[in-house]
Amino acid sequence: MCEFRVKVVERDGEREVASDIVYVKVDGGSVTLKDITGKPVKVESALVSYINVTSEELHLIKHPLIGAFLRLLSSLPASSNVKEAQALWESFVKDGEKLLRDAYSS
């Protein structure tokens, strides 16, 4: 059986967050991982960026904008018209601008 070591790549580097992972699901604004015992690990604002079965590595990329974008995508199918979808987009852009300012102002 193939169990993965999971590493998260962020602006400040890379770190291992889990091992023996057999289950991965993008869920809302996060990624849920489960190991061989079923123990869950949740990584907020992340997406799978790289999987290598040979080396049993799975890499996630993490950034606050990813969670906001995933929440936008999950909200769009529920919107009933173009105006509602446009309002969701404008809210994402406004929140995104704030996230970028906060993340890069240091």
Question: Descriptors for this entry?
Answer:
106 residues, alpha+beta, 6-stranded mixed beta sheet, 6 strands, 43% strand, globular
Record field, number of beta strands? 6
Structural class, by secondary structure, is alpha+beta
Order of strands side by side in the largest beta sheet?
4-3-2-1-6-5
Give the CA-CA distance, first to last residue. 44 Å
Helix-strand pattern, N to C?
Answer: EEEEEEHH
User: How many domain units?
Assistant: 2
Q: Determine the fraction of residues in helical runs and give it as a percent range.
A: 25-40%
Radius of gyration from the alpha-carbon trace, in angstroms: 16 Å
Q: What count of helical segments does DSSP give? A: 2
Shape: globular
**Low-confidence spans: pLDDT under 50, at least 5 residues?**
none
Largest sheet: 6 strands, mixed
Mean pLDDT level: 90
Please state roughly what percent of the residues sit in beta strands, choosing from under 5%, 5-15%, 15-25%, 25-35%, 35-45% or over 45%. Answer: 35-45%
